[in-house]
Design brief:
Distance between the termini: 28 Å
Number of helices: 7
Number of strands: 11
Radius of gyration: 20 Å
Structural class: alpha+beta
Number of domains: 2
CATH class of the largest domain: Alpha Beta
Strand content: 15-25%
Helix content: 25-40%
CATH superfamily of the largest domain: MutM-like, N-terminal
Largest sheet: 9 strands, mixed
CATH architecture of the largest domain: Alpha-Beta Barrel
Length: 279
DNA sequence: CCCCAGTCCTGCGGGC
DNA sequence: TGCCCGCAGGACTGGG
């Protein structure tokens, strides 16, 4: 499930193939399944982007942004199972989109592959892009948020801190897996109302967010047992070996060595925590 | 403001 | 062994 570290890894993996290259063409993939959400339609996308130079590739929260010289940008949301690949995809039947590039006379391709097809692909103008990423629709990036922003944002809601962490308007980039890992690192109980966190806890939450996400990027993200997430070269990430609580219900807490990892459900999602470490 | 259930989707694993 | 069901969840929507 691509969250910030997985999307960052994808962006780093495809950046060299795209930046500075000319997008000579695009192709709709070979999927025989229901088409993914694509806006505008493929023909219009092709008309706008053909023969444009790619000026940059970046990440915004859990989205991949590919900028073109005509000030349009592709915005890709991988959601659950979307992947950006420079190598041949795992299977050809879930291919959703192909960018065909030329740089110094050499051809290359980047693919969007998505098993479940919940991902989205849009080509937007600069104005539409600004609208998508407006502050009232997307909070600060989890890796760029300051302690002051963190305090201010969590003070404004009495929702459980875990639920607030998943709200992309509060802070952008964290999903279900890293929310549990971050709260465990910070020593904060997931059901605690966000606005009751002391300044000390806010500082710990802020530091744990940066630490966990930075570490996960270093390990190129988490590939779970469902096996769908992979980097641009179609290799597994390895941060799953560093998980301390996620999907570990019933096992001993690796931090205190005495507590047992519990599983609860919040906002219809699983939360994992150690009641001894997290107060 | 906040919560909940439902929606999209595929693959996998538990239970019978 | 095979089949059905439930579960996984990111973002969004509609109702309370």
């Amino acid at each position: 499930m691509p969250e910030l570290p997985e999307v960052e890894t994808m962006v780093r993996g495809i950046r060299d193939a795209l930046t500075g290259a000319v997008l000579v063409d695009v192709a709709p993939g070979e999927s025989r399944c229901r088409p993914i959400c694509m806006e505008p339609d493929f023909k219009t996308i092709r008309k706008i982007c053909r023969n444009q130079q790619v000026t940059g590739v970046r990440r915004r929260a859990k989205r991949i942004v590919i900028d073109l010289e005509n000030s349009h940008s592709f915005v890709i949301e991988p959601r659950m199972t979307g992947l950006m690949l420079t190598q041949d995809p795992p299977t050809r039947d879930h291919l959703r989109f192909q960018w065909i590039l030329e740089y110094m006379g050499k051809r290359a391709s980047v693919w969007f592959w998505d098993q479940r097809g919940l991902g989205t692909l849009r080509l937007v103008s600069r104005e539409q892009l600004a609208e998508m990423f407006a502050p009232d629709r997307l909070g600060p990036d989890a890796l760029e948020m300051t302690v002051e922003e963190c305090r201010e944002r969590f003070r404004q809601t009495q929702r459980a801190v875990k639920v607030a962490l998943l709200d992309q308007k509060v802070v952008a980039g964290i999903g279900n897996l890293y929310a549990s890992e971050i709260l465990h690192r910070a020593g904060i109980h997931p059901v605690r109302p966000a606005n009751t966190l002391s300044l000390v806890k806010i500082r710990r939450l802020h530091a744990a967010t940066a630490e966990i996400l930075t570490e996960a990027i270093r390990y190129e993200g988490s590939t779970l047992s469902d096996g769908t997430y992979r980097n641009a070269l179609n290799h597994d990430g390895s941060y799953q070996n560093q998980h301390r609580v996620y999907a570990k219900a019933g096992s001993r807490c690796p931090s205190c060595g005495r507590g047992t990892i519990e599983r609860i459900v919040q906002a219809q999602r699983s939360t994992f925590y150690c009641a001894r470490c997290q107060k």
